[in-house]
Design a protein that fits this description.
Helix content is 46%, strand content 28%. It is α+β, with helices and mostly antiparallel strands. It has a 4-stranded antiparallel β-sheet. The longest helix has 21 residues, at 31-51. The chain is elongated. Bound molecules: nickel (II) ion (NI).
Length: 131
């Protein structure tokens, strides 16, 4: 094997006991091999999920007095119009607006749109819920 790296892991005893029990049932000869397999499995799972077609909602709050912010939010939504099913705008109070953006598409694209909206300065409480 190439580039093998050793590193220490801190773990609660009861969790390690459960891990040892699990890997014994799966016939692993040592913890390292079991750990490597778990990591590989997680990475593949994540890749699969990212390519998965999904639907959900991005919700966020912002101050509508900030024109640059509003323009940026609208611009981003137009840049990703094919992912967006609808946008609901709620005037929360005198200053703040809530937007609920219903989305459908590849999970990684939906996540990228949510990340872009979250990164706009002044956007608060941006959350993505995927079903
Ligand atoms: Ni509003």
């Amino acid at each position: 094997m190439s580039d093998l790296v050793r590193f220490g892991v801190s773990i609660e005893k009861h969790l390690l006991d459960q891990f040892d029990l699990l890997i014994r049932k799966k016939n692993y000869t040592n913890r390292s091999e079991a750990f490597r397999d778990m990591i590989r499995h997680e990475l593949v799972q994540k890749q699969w999920v990212e390519n998965q077609e999904t639907a959900g909602a991005i919700t966020f709050v912002f101050d509508h007095h900030r024109r640059d912010l509003l323009n940026r939010v609208i611009h981003l939504q137009h840049e990703h119009y094919s992912l967006i099913i609808s946008t609901q705008h709620v005037h929360l109070d005198h200053d703040r607006c809530l937007e609920i953006v219903a989305v459908r598409g590849a999970a990684r694209h939906v996540q990228r749109l949510a990340d872009s909206l979250k990164a706009v300065k002044g956007v608060e409480h941006c959350a993505l819920s995927i079903i």
